[in-house]
Each structure stands twice: as C-alpha cells, then as structure tokens.
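Working notes for the structural subgroup meeting. M.R. asked for a predicted model of this chain before we commit to crystallization trials. I am recording the input and output together here so anyone reviewing the notebook later can reproduce the run.

Input as submitted:
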Amino acid sequence: MLRAIEETVEYIKRKTENFKPEIGIILGTGLGGLVKEIEIEHQLMYSNIPNFPISTLEFHSGKLIFGTLNGKKIIAMQGRLHYYEGYSMQQITFPVRVMKGLGIENLIVSNAAGSLNPEFKKGDLMIIDDHINLQPDNPLRGLIESELGPRFPDMSQPYKRDIITKALEIAKSVDIKCHKGVYVAVSGPNLETKAEYKYLRLIGADAVGMSTVPEVIVANHAGLPVFAISVLTDEGFPEDLQPFDLDEILAAAAKAEPKMTEILTRLISEL
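Returned structure, recorded in token form:
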C-alpha cells in the first residue's frame, strides 16, 4: 500500500504544481454544494488518478478539487466511496492516505444519514461526537506498514472535541439548529428494518449511515484530527417508518446543505 500511496501522491503533485493542502474534505451524498464556495485551482477526475478507486454512484461527481476556501488551502473529494459498492475497506480509505501524504493537517467529513433520535428531525444537522462501527470489516485489518500508523490506534477521541466546540458555537452564532450525537455505520446498501432501527437506537445511536467510519478510523490511525457532520435526510422511527425514496433523500440533502456549508466555511477559517 505504501508504494501505491507514494505513486498517487507524486502524480497529484505533478498535476497540481505541488499544491499543498492544509485541510481535506470528504463530501457526502447530495452535499457537493460546498464546492461552489471554493476558489478552484485544479480538478482531477478519480478515473485519471493512478490507484484511485472510482465512485460508482451516478449522483457522485468523482472529482478531487484543489483550491482556497476562506483563506485555507483545501482538497475536497466531490463524491466518496462506499463499502456497498464492492470496494475493500482499504480501497475506500485510500484517498485519506493520499490526502495525508499531500500534507493535510485536518480532515472534515460530511454525510447524509437517517435520524434515529426522535428529537432529531429530517433536515436537521448533527455533529458526530462518537460512533459505533457495525460494518463487517476494518480498514486496518492486515495492515503491517508501521510508517502509516500504530498497530493498535487509540479511538478514545475519534472526533476532535475542540473543533466540535467551535462548530457548535458557529452554529449558534448564525442561528442554525445543530445537534451533537452518535453515528452508527452499517454496510448497506439496503435500508434497515423496523427491528434493526429499534436495535440501533437501543445501543445508543442517534443517526445511521453507510459511510464515514472507515475514513475516520484511518484518519485517526494517521494522526489526523477529524470533524464530521451529518445532514439528517430521513427518519428511522419504527412506529412511523416510511418507504425509502432516493429522490426525497437527495432533495432533503440539497435543502439542508446550505446550512452545513455555512457552518463549514466559517469553521475552516478557524482551523
């Protein structure tokens, strides 16, 4: 893996004139609007980058964006990768390794998720302060290159508390409702049954999704501070469960996305 990371990093440096990002951003389903705020200097399609997996979802652009946002040099993934697409956990998280190799000092992750907490409604934002991993594999399994990080990384604070505090203060200052909670990652691609929603709530989750946790594990392994935020696009309340509708999910993400962008653009200037 180390050789592949180095090869990809060198390719990107050549194509971006040695662009040096400070912050990495992973944009989730329906949440690509933040790109409009970036002063773009370079763009690379995933399909043109050596060793880079390609997003198979038609609503994910599959581009790496390089530019400036609120005075910070950033690299943004417009379109993430999921375990349910058939990739291995190490493939899903390969972009995080590459961003680390390019020099990022903080990682911001966004996603669209389903609410499990009756107090968290569709269209709300939730800052992730902890997670539960129910995905069937781990991106660190079998990894032996000590250059990438320790064999047994600590996960007592997977999401940086001081960044969470800043984000909550920003949300309050601009009058945006923003919760804090626990995200549970499942493999997908099917949605959950009523019994599964009950179980996930019982074990302490406030929101459920099919991403984020693998990238967060690898970022922690690599020593990167992480901030993650969910746009709650549907409600997994067993007593009133509605059939899944992808168009409604994407519409809910698009409607809530400006609130997330407002928080992130302000937060980035303070990192």
